[in-house]
Amino acid sequence: MRCHEEGAQLVLSNAPVALRMGEINKLAEAVNAPVIGADVTNMDDLKKLFEEAMKHFGGPVDFVLHSIGMGLNVRKGKHYVEMDYEWNKKTLDISAMSLHRVLRTAWDMDALSEGGSVVALTYIAAQRVFPDYNEMADAKALLESVTRSFGYHYGVRKKVRVNTVSQSPTRTTAGSGVKGFDGFINFAEKMSPLGNASADECADYCVTLFSDLTKMVTMQNLFHDGGYSTTGVTGAVIEQMEK
Fold first, then answer.
1. Global pTM value
2. Which residue ranges in the chain fall short of pLDDT 50?
3. Among 1, 66, 72, 145, which is 20 to 30 Å from 94 by CA?
4. Predicted local confidence at residue 152, as pLDDT
5. Under a CB-based contact definition with an 8 Å cutoff, are residues 177 and 206 in contact?
6. Sheet containing 221-224: order of strands
7. Tell me: the pLDDT tens digits for 127-143?
8. Domains of the chain by range and CATH?
9. Mapping DSSP to helix (H, G, I), strand (E, B) and coil, where does residue 167 land?
10. Residues contacting residue 85 through CB under 8 Å, at least 6 positions apart
11. β-strand 221-224 against 112-122: which pairing, if any?
């Protein structure tokens, strides 16, 4: 929505099974954007997505937002030390290697504009232990690694920027499956000097990363969390512990 407000033309995509729920169609109507279904583990689907997007835009794509995550072991209630490895492979493929697939497809098709921008959403559990975040912590760590590695090659080739945004805990469909997620949110609020960054504020930040104002920022994991990531303790947390 924020990109639309800034004048961007958009193409929206989601997994075919998710399209049946209809939520994305409401957004598509609001921003006057086509919806193109794609399974991010299917290279043919991704090729079709970029083909149709470029046809819609009449040229290459200026920016891409990767906001994809699914933890099968989390959904199934499997503890980290007892994870099902076949489920874990699917988790890593959907939540992390999907970024590599998207970038690879765009690379092969020369689908991104010179100086374009790709942003993927991550979480600080990639660096710190949040026990109930489970396998998604590993997936986010891999996502950030793909960002750095592919970001290097895309920068050299076409000045394309690739970054991750490590957002405050935000209520999402994927996040709702994490045990104790409400506790995550409340603790982070007390641990952040500015409080938790909202989803709308994250959208604002992503707009800056898609713009030419950040054309020299790439291969970075950028914390957008109200200062949480660099705070040791706060008065609010101490007060809560002393009650």
1. 0.94
2. none
3. 1
4. 98
5. no
6. 61-66, 112-122, 161-167, 221-224
7. 999 998 999 999 999 99
8. 2-242 (3.40.50.720)
9. strand
10. none
11. unpaired
Q: What are 65's strand-pairing partners?
A: 119
CA-only gyration radius of the chain, Å: 18
One-letter amino acid identity for 220?
Answer: Q
- Nearest in space to 95 (alpha carbons), one of 132, 139, 130, 125: 139
> Where would I find the H helices in the chain?
2-5, 16-19, 23-31, 43-57, 72-75, 85-92, 98-109, 136-158, 181-191, 199-210, 235-242
Q: What is the pLDDT of residue 176?
A: 60
Q: Contact 116/61 with Cβ under 8 angstroms?
A: yes
* Structure-token match 């232990």, residue found: 129
Query: Cα(144)–Cα(141) distance, rounded to whole angstroms?
Result: 5
Contact between 78 and 87 under an 8 Å Cβ cutoff? The reply is yes
